[in-house]
Specification:
InterPro entries: UDP-GALP_mutase, UDP-GalPyranose_mutase_C
Order of helices and strands: EHEEEEHEEEHHHHEHEHEHEEEHEEHEH
Structural class: alpha/beta
CATH topology of one domain: Rossmann fold
Number of strands: 17
Strand order of the largest sheet: 8-7-13-14-15-12-16
Number of helices: 12
Helix content: 25-40%
Mean pLDDT: 96
Low-confidence stretches: none
Family: Belongs to the UDP-galactopyranose/dTDP-fucopyranose mutase family.
Shape: globular
Enzyme class: isomerase
CATH superfamily of one domain: NAD(P)-binding Rossmann-like Domain
Radius of gyration: 22 Å
Bound molecules: flavin-adenine dinucleotide, uridine-5'-diphosphate
CATH architecture of one domain: 3-Layer(aba) Sandwich
Strand content: 15-25%
Cofactor: FAD
CATH class of one domain: Alpha Beta
Distance between the termini: 35 Å
Keywords: FAD, Flavoprotein, Isomerase, Plasmid
Oligomer: single chain
């Protein structure tokens, strides 16, 4: 493709920045550069829309659903929450998840209610629940893997009921082969708090993520081209802009020079059902390996939308497909470090985001990472070209 054949009428001879990927990483940096530095930005994405994995849209039945699986916003960072609040109002929402275990639906993270329901107990206090868990836990001296974390906290039976099967399906690996950070995401509770997250700020963008992105990117200095793959213009990148910000997979940027970094993918089966409600909470997890999917999500719980029909999504983990999850294990980190060293030695390209930094980060962490990246760029620019 000719370097400029795809740019909009009236575009500048050269942009200040070409940003690859219109997810949180690329969009936040585009917004900051345009609004704070007066920079001209061209933002591209190979998908036909902005928003990255957080993209939502209405389906044929008019139900707002998340095309790439359920995205629930939560953060402890006031800075991140305040930043996003410029582009959206919020719907208060505290996420609840039930797990389908031994034919029952019980709270996950495991809490006192889970123990009482599953084992027919009558634990009344935090102390009693803590004592019960301590009697089952198998202390692991040096916690390294995702198996160690759970066995150390709750013992083998609960590990097998809630974590082993789910993790084997989700990652195609046994928890003993995965870094501890994966299952450490899920706490164990001795109280009856049945919220999935404990963060200070928990809310959903009132009109959805896509609307929030559209407002973030609605700036005269930002041009957006969706449906454009960076591969088509890589050779001309520095004719288009002085600086490149890349939020795609880092191994792809370097033509897989050291081999492919493993990413886990998912297939989404979205279904609209002729009933008002399908399940009692937004997400039900299915840790049992008898079924191939990991969880079912029902969006109306997240969005508060009312309608006589409802839309749900089954998630089927897969080795093939879009790269959704970096896989945290030591050998993958080693390989990433090789690519990271190349990235550090590459002038005029900034790597940011979940795929480019190969980190299992939530949305708020990516917003935080993008804001910090912008601040560093801004400081450097201020020294070079004070405004
Ligand atoms: P992405 O959103 O992946 O955006 C990268 C963009 O770059 C993509 O749109 C891609 O098309 C584009 N791109 C890549 N390569 C190229 C190329 N060569 N040319 C052009 N464009 C390219 N986080 C939460 O906080 N809460 C949740 O509940 C939650 N649920 C999740 C559920 C699922 C199933 C998944 C997969 C993730 C979930 N996350 C959740 C994580 C969240 O999706 C990420 O933290 C966030 O979207 C990362 O933003 P990003 O901009 O780094 O990457
Ligand atoms: N997990 C599990 N059982 C559950 C929930 C989570 O084994 O019921 C494990 C699994 O390995 C999963 C990880 O904990 O991949 C992190 O769960 P989370 O819900 O944070 O995953 P995400 O929403 O990022 O897919």
């Amino acid at each position: 493709m000719n370097a400029f054949s795809f740019t909009p009428p009236g575009s500048p001879a050269k942009y200040d920045y070409l940003i690859v990927g219109a997810g949180f990483a690329g969009s936040v940096i585009a917004e900051r550069l345009a609004s704070q530095r007066g920079a001209r930005v061209l933002l591209i994405d190979r998908r036909p829309h902005v928003g990255g994995n957080a993209y939502d849209e209405k389906d044929a039945a008019g139900i707002l659903y998340h095309k790439y699986g359920p995205h629930i916003f939560h953060t402890n960072s006031e800075q991140v929450f305040d930043y996003l609040s410029q582009f959206t109002e919020w719907r208060p929402y505290e996420h609840k998840v039930l797990a389908h275990v031994r034919g029952q639906l019980v709270p996950i993270p495991i809490n006192r209610t889970t123990l009482n329901k599953l084992f027919g107990l009558d634990l009344q206090t935090d102390e009693q629940a803590a004592e019960y868990l301590a009697s089952r836990a198998e202390p692991v001296a040096d916690i390294q893997t995702s198996e160690d974390v759970v066995i150390n906290a709750v013992g083998r039976e609960l590990y097998q009921l809630f974590f082993r099967g789910y993790t084997r399906k989700q990652w195609g690996l046994d928890p003993s082969e995965l870094d501890k950070q994966v299952t450490s995401r899920i706490p164990t509770r001795t109280n009856t708090d049945d919220r999935y997250f404990g963060d200070t700020f928990q809310a959903m963008p009132l009109e959805g993520y896509t609307k929030m992105f559209e407002r973030m990117l609605d700036h005269p200095l930002i041009d957006i081209r969706t449906g454009v793959d960076f591969a088509e213009l890589k050779d001309n990148a520095f004719e288009i802009a002085d600086h490149l910000i890349y939020t795609g997979p880092i191994d792809e940027y370097f033509d897989f020079r050291f081999g492919k970094l493993p990413y886990r993918s998912l297939k989404f089966d979205h279904q609209t059902l002729e009933q008002e409600q399908f399940q009692e909470v937004a997400v039900v997890n299915y840790p049992n390996e008898d079924v191939p999917f990991t969880r079912i999500s029902e969006y109306k719980h997240l969005t508060g939308q009312t309608a006589p029909v409802t839309t749900i999504t089954y998630e089927y983990p897969s080795a093939e497909g879009d790269p959704y999850y970096p896989i945290p294990r030591p050998e993958n980190q080693e390989l990433f470090k090789q690519y990271e060293a190349l990235a550090d030695a590459t002038d005029n390209v900034t790597f940011v985001g979940r795929l480019a930094t190969y980190r299992y980060y939530n949305m708020d962490q990516i917003v935080g990472q993008a804001l910090a990246t912008f601040r560093r760029m801004d400081e450097k620019l201020s020294k070079e070209r004070p405004q």
